[in-house]
Amino acid sequence: MSASRQIVLDTETTGLEVRQGDRVIEIGCVEIGNRKLTGRRFHRYLNPDREIDAGAQAVHGLTNEFLADKPRFRDVAAEFLDFIRNAELVIHNAAFDVGFLNQELALAGLESVEAACAGIVDTLRMARELRPGKRNSLDALCSEYAVDNSGRQLHGALLDAELLAEVYLAMTRGQESLAMELEVAVHALPAAGMAGRPALLVVRADESELAEHERVLQEVAKESKGRCLWLAGTGQPG
Questions:
Q1: Given 43, 60, 92, 155, the catalytic residue
Q2: d(CA 166, CA 113)
Q3: Closest alpha carbon to 60 in 140, 147, 154, 144
Q4: 60 noted as active-site residue
Q5: φ, ψ dihedrals at 116, nearest 5°
Q6: Quick check: pTM over 0.85?
Q7: Which pLDDT tens digit goes with each residue over 2-25?
Q8: What stretch of H or E contains 138?
Q9: pLDDT tens digits along 116-152
Q10: 92: which of 63, 118, 170, 228 lies 20 to 30 Å off by Cα?
Protein backbone atom coordinates (compact mmCIF):
# COMPACT_ATOMS: atom_id res chain seq x y z
CA MET A 1 0.00 0.00 0.00
CA SER A 2 1.30 3.44 -0.89
CA ALA A 3 2.38 5.93 1.71
CA SER A 4 -0.24 8.53 2.69
CA ARG A 5 2.21 11.32 1.74
CA GLN A 6 3.82 11.25 -1.67
CA ILE A 7 6.00 13.70 -3.57
CA VAL A 8 5.87 13.68 -7.35
CA LEU A 9 9.24 14.93 -8.57
CA ASP A 10 10.93 15.96 -11.80
CA THR A 11 14.21 17.65 -12.73
CA GLU A 12 15.75 19.39 -15.72
CA THR A 13 19.49 19.18 -16.30
CA THR A 14 22.31 20.66 -18.39
CA GLY A 15 22.60 17.37 -20.28
CA LEU A 16 22.09 13.63 -20.03
CA GLU A 17 25.41 12.48 -18.56
CA VAL A 18 25.67 12.73 -14.80
CA ARG A 19 29.08 11.00 -14.90
CA GLN A 20 30.42 13.68 -17.22
CA GLY A 21 29.49 16.47 -14.83
CA ASP A 22 26.07 17.52 -16.06
CA ARG A 23 24.11 19.32 -13.35
CA VAL A 24 20.54 19.89 -12.15
CA ILE A 25 19.08 23.25 -13.24
CA GLU A 26 15.46 22.88 -12.15
CA ILE A 27 13.60 20.88 -9.50
CA GLY A 28 9.82 20.61 -9.42
CA CYS A 29 7.86 18.76 -6.73
CA VAL A 30 4.16 18.52 -5.90
CA GLU A 31 2.68 16.83 -2.85
CA ILE A 32 -0.05 14.20 -2.78
CA GLY A 33 -1.75 13.42 0.53
CA ASN A 34 -4.19 10.52 0.74
CA ARG A 35 -4.40 10.44 -3.08
CA LYS A 36 -5.21 14.12 -3.47
CA LEU A 37 -3.00 17.03 -4.55
CA THR A 38 -2.48 19.17 -1.46
CA GLY A 39 -1.30 22.34 -3.22
CA ARG A 40 2.14 22.20 -1.56
CA ARG A 41 5.02 22.57 -3.99
CA PHE A 42 8.77 22.87 -4.11
CA HIS A 43 10.13 24.57 -7.21
CA ARG A 44 13.57 26.04 -7.82
CA TYR A 45 15.67 27.10 -10.81
CA LEU A 46 19.40 26.57 -10.21
CA ASN A 47 22.67 27.99 -11.48
CA PRO A 48 24.72 24.95 -12.58
CA ASP A 49 28.05 26.76 -12.95
CA ARG A 50 28.50 25.17 -16.37
CA GLU A 51 27.17 25.53 -19.91
CA ILE A 52 23.89 23.90 -20.92
CA ASP A 53 24.13 21.46 -23.83
CA ALA A 54 22.37 22.63 -26.98
CA GLY A 55 20.32 19.42 -27.12
CA ALA A 56 19.13 19.83 -23.53
CA GLN A 57 18.28 23.49 -24.07
CA ALA A 58 16.12 22.53 -27.05
CA VAL A 59 14.13 20.24 -24.74
CA HIS A 60 13.52 22.54 -21.78
CA GLY A 61 14.29 26.01 -23.14
CA LEU A 62 16.34 27.11 -20.11
CA THR A 63 19.37 29.28 -20.89
CA ASN A 64 22.60 30.11 -19.11
CA GLU A 65 21.58 33.78 -19.06
CA PHE A 66 18.27 32.99 -17.33
CA LEU A 67 20.00 30.83 -14.69
CA ALA A 68 22.92 33.17 -14.02
CA ASP A 69 21.33 34.87 -10.99
CA LYS A 70 19.67 31.74 -9.58
CA PRO A 71 20.87 29.96 -6.41
CA ARG A 72 23.23 27.00 -6.50
CA PHE A 73 21.88 23.58 -5.54
CA ARG A 74 23.79 23.66 -2.26
CA ASP A 75 21.85 26.79 -1.29
CA VAL A 76 18.48 24.99 -1.49
CA ALA A 77 19.58 21.41 -0.70
CA ALA A 78 18.51 21.36 2.96
CA GLU A 79 15.11 22.84 2.09
CA PHE A 80 14.67 20.23 -0.65
CA LEU A 81 15.51 17.37 1.73
CA ASP A 82 13.05 18.70 4.30
CA PHE A 83 10.32 18.77 1.66
CA ILE A 84 10.80 15.13 0.56
CA ARG A 85 11.69 13.70 3.98
CA ASN A 86 9.74 10.56 4.94
CA ALA A 87 7.56 10.79 1.82
CA GLU A 88 7.30 8.25 -0.97
CA LEU A 89 8.70 9.74 -4.18
CA VAL A 90 6.94 9.26 -7.52
CA ILE A 91 9.31 9.81 -10.46
CA HIS A 92 9.18 8.96 -14.18
CA ASN A 93 12.42 7.14 -15.02
CA ALA A 94 13.55 7.46 -11.42
CA ALA A 95 17.13 6.30 -11.98
CA PHE A 96 17.86 9.41 -14.07
CA ASP A 97 16.53 12.01 -11.62
CA VAL A 98 17.79 10.25 -8.50
CA GLY A 99 21.26 9.85 -10.02
CA PHE A 100 21.51 13.58 -10.70
CA LEU A 101 20.06 14.59 -7.31
CA ASN A 102 22.38 12.25 -5.44
CA GLN A 103 25.38 13.75 -7.24
CA GLU A 104 24.27 17.23 -6.19
CA LEU A 105 23.62 16.13 -2.61
CA ALA A 106 27.02 14.44 -2.42
CA LEU A 107 28.73 17.61 -3.66
CA ALA A 108 26.89 19.49 -0.90
CA GLY A 109 28.02 16.94 1.69
CA LEU A 110 24.48 15.79 2.43
CA GLU A 111 22.58 12.50 2.60
CA SER A 112 21.21 10.74 -0.45
CA VAL A 113 17.64 10.90 -1.74
CA GLU A 114 17.07 7.29 -0.64
CA ALA A 115 18.19 8.08 2.91
CA ALA A 116 15.74 10.97 3.20
CA CYS A 117 12.62 9.53 1.60
CA ALA A 118 10.40 6.57 2.51
CA GLY A 119 10.63 4.90 -0.90
CA ILE A 120 10.59 5.53 -4.64
CA VAL A 121 7.94 4.61 -7.22
CA ASP A 122 9.16 4.60 -10.84
CA THR A 123 6.15 5.37 -13.03
CA LEU A 124 8.07 4.45 -16.20
CA ARG A 125 8.60 0.92 -14.89
CA MET A 126 4.97 0.80 -13.75
CA ALA A 127 3.76 1.96 -17.18
CA ARG A 128 5.87 -0.65 -18.97
CA GLU A 129 4.25 -3.36 -16.86
CA LEU A 130 0.75 -1.99 -17.51
CA ARG A 131 1.35 -1.18 -21.21
CA PRO A 132 3.99 -3.59 -22.55
CA GLY A 133 5.27 -2.75 -26.01
CA LYS A 134 3.73 0.73 -26.05
CA ARG A 135 5.29 4.18 -25.82
CA ASN A 136 5.35 5.27 -22.21
CA SER A 137 6.65 8.82 -22.36
CA LEU A 138 4.84 11.35 -20.19
CA ASP A 139 3.04 12.71 -23.27
CA ALA A 140 1.91 9.21 -24.27
CA LEU A 141 0.62 8.54 -20.75
CA CYS A 142 -1.20 11.86 -20.66
CA SER A 143 -2.97 10.80 -23.85
CA GLU A 144 -3.73 7.33 -22.47
CA TYR A 145 -5.20 8.62 -19.21
CA ALA A 146 -6.91 11.74 -20.60
CA VAL A 147 -4.66 14.20 -18.75
CA ASP A 148 -4.61 17.60 -20.46
CA ASN A 149 -1.04 18.41 -21.46
CA SER A 150 -1.89 21.05 -24.06
CA GLY A 151 0.22 23.61 -22.19
CA ARG A 152 3.36 21.48 -22.45
CA GLN A 153 5.29 23.01 -25.33
CA LEU A 154 8.64 22.42 -23.60
CA HIS A 155 9.72 20.23 -20.72
CA GLY A 156 9.56 21.95 -17.34
CA ALA A 157 10.15 20.30 -13.98
CA LEU A 158 7.15 21.76 -12.16
CA LEU A 159 4.69 21.35 -15.04
CA ASP A 160 5.91 17.80 -15.67
CA ALA A 161 5.58 16.94 -11.97
CA GLU A 162 2.00 18.24 -11.98
CA LEU A 163 1.14 16.22 -15.11
CA LEU A 164 2.84 13.12 -13.72
CA ALA A 165 0.84 13.44 -10.50
CA GLU A 166 -2.40 13.34 -12.49
CA VAL A 167 -1.14 10.42 -14.57
CA TYR A 168 -0.01 8.49 -11.49
CA LEU A 169 -3.37 8.94 -9.76
CA ALA A 170 -5.12 7.73 -12.92
CA MET A 171 -2.75 4.77 -13.31
CA THR A 172 -3.35 3.61 -9.75
CA ARG A 173 -7.06 4.40 -9.47
CA GLY A 174 -8.01 0.82 -10.34
CA GLN A 175 -5.78 -0.51 -7.57
CA GLU A 176 -7.43 1.83 -5.09
CA SER A 177 -10.92 0.78 -6.22
CA LEU A 178 -9.99 -2.90 -5.97
CA ALA A 179 -8.62 -2.42 -2.45
CA MET A 180 -11.82 -0.63 -1.41
CA GLU A 181 -14.01 -3.33 -2.97
CA LEU A 182 -12.07 -6.07 -1.22
CA GLU A 183 -12.33 -4.23 2.08
CA VAL A 184 -16.09 -3.82 1.66
CA ALA A 185 -16.46 -7.46 0.69
CA VAL A 186 -14.52 -8.66 3.74
CA HIS A 187 -16.60 -6.50 6.08
CA ALA A 188 -19.79 -7.77 4.44
CA LEU A 189 -18.91 -11.44 4.75
CA PRO A 190 -20.02 -12.14 8.35
CA ALA A 191 -23.49 -10.64 7.90
CA ALA A 192 -24.06 -12.10 4.44
CA GLY A 193 -22.48 -15.42 5.30
CA MET A 194 -24.58 -16.04 8.41
CA ALA A 195 -27.92 -14.93 6.97
CA GLY A 196 -30.38 -17.83 6.62
CA ARG A 197 -27.86 -20.49 7.67
CA PRO A 198 -28.48 -23.01 10.46
CA ALA A 199 -26.11 -23.02 13.42
CA LEU A 200 -22.97 -25.08 12.80
CA LEU A 201 -22.73 -28.38 14.65
CA VAL A 202 -19.28 -28.71 16.23
CA VAL A 203 -18.14 -32.30 16.79
CA ARG A 204 -15.17 -32.61 19.16
CA ALA A 205 -12.85 -35.61 19.32
CA ASP A 206 -13.12 -37.75 22.47
CA GLU A 207 -10.10 -38.90 24.52
CA SER A 208 -9.66 -42.19 22.66
CA GLU A 209 -9.66 -40.42 19.31
CA LEU A 210 -7.15 -37.85 20.54
CA ALA A 211 -4.91 -40.65 21.82
CA GLU A 212 -5.07 -42.44 18.46
CA HIS A 213 -4.24 -39.18 16.66
CA GLU A 214 -1.22 -38.69 18.89
CA ARG A 215 -0.05 -42.29 18.22
CA VAL A 216 -0.19 -41.76 14.47
CA LEU A 217 1.79 -38.49 14.76
CA GLN A 218 4.51 -40.22 16.77
CA GLU A 219 4.77 -42.95 14.11
CA VAL A 220 5.09 -40.29 11.41
CA ALA A 221 7.78 -38.56 13.45
CA LYS A 222 9.66 -41.84 13.85
CA GLU A 223 9.48 -42.75 10.16
CA SER A 224 10.50 -39.23 9.09
CA LYS A 225 13.39 -39.12 11.58
CA GLY A 226 11.90 -36.28 13.59
CA ARG A 227 10.57 -34.21 10.68
CA CYS A 228 6.86 -34.43 11.41
CA LEU A 229 5.39 -31.05 10.45
CA TRP A 230 2.33 -31.50 12.68
CA LEU A 231 4.55 -31.70 15.76
CA ALA A 232 6.83 -28.80 14.76
CA GLY A 233 6.59 -25.91 17.19
CA THR A 234 4.63 -27.92 19.80
CA GLY A 235 7.63 -28.64 21.95
CA GLN A 236 7.22 -32.38 21.34
CA PRO A 237 9.73 -34.60 19.50
CA GLY A 238 9.51 -34.11 15.76
A1: 155
A2: 23
A3: 154
A4: no
A5: -85, -35
A6: no
A7: 468 999 999 999 999 999 999 999
A8: helix 138-144
A9: 999 999 999 999 999 999 999 999 999 999 998 887 7
A10: 63
